[in-house]
Design goal:
alpha/beta, Rossmann fold, six-stranded parallel β-sheet, three-stranded antiparallel β-sheet, 5 helices, 27% helix, elongated
């Protein structure tokens, strides 16, 4: 029986690396994987999922109005799909998460969604909120704060300092964000 999995973490925990490894494992066993990614994160170019450690794979880009169930059905006309992988799942809408549920429940295709749980203000992203509510399995991938404790918060940086105001979405990597434990996030303390 297929399930919907949500694997979340703060930034720099290896979500994309794990997604690419899962894809490799399926393909190594002769199975077909469909990889989807939000078009909001365009740092690595169109149609690419790329990890900070440099590994990458092709992906189909999703817009806010893309019907994921229809994308999967169209791809099923070409070949079978043994697994659906989603990168940057925090950017999905609730409607798109419900479409993932249909992929799992109606088409019996397992789906693994990877994304951030919360933004730099400590608020859930809409996609993450829906995935936490609707997923069959929720798993936290762990990373650490500069102090060595588990990092659970994403902190936006401007000129090396923590900021707590601004739009929810601002695409960036290590130059723009750091993962912190809750204590240091609350204090805005980005290093010792």
């Amino acid at each position: 029986m297929a399930k919907l999995y949500f694997r979340y973490s703060a930034m720099n925990a290896g979500k994309t690396t794990q997604l690419i490894q899962v894809r490799h494992n399926y393909q190594e066993r002769g199975q077909n994987v469909l990889v989807l990614k939000s078009s909001i994160d365009n740092r690595d170019g169109a149609g690419v999922v790329k990890s900070r450690i440099g590994i990458e794979c092709p992906a189909i880009l999703l817009n806010s109005d893309t019907n994921i169930l229809e994308v999967v059905k169209q791809n099923l006309k070409k070949d079978k799909i043994d697994c659906l992988l989603i990168d940057e799942a925090q950017f999905l809408s609730k409607a798109q998460v419900l479409q993932l549920c249909s992929v799992v429940d109606e088409l019996n295709i397992p789906c693994m969604a990877y994304g951030l749980r919360s933004d730099f203000k400590g608020n859930l992203f809409p996609g993450s909120d829906a995935l936490i509510s609707l997923s069959d399995s929720i798993e936290e991938l762990k990373t650490i704060c500069w102090c060595g404790k588990k990092a659970i918060m994403n902190t936006r940086l401007m000129d090396g300092k923590a900021v707590f105001e601004g739009e929810q979405i601002q695409i960036g990597g290590n130059e723009s964000y750091i993962s912190l434990c809750r204590k240091h996030w609350r204090e805005g303390k980005v290093k010792a």
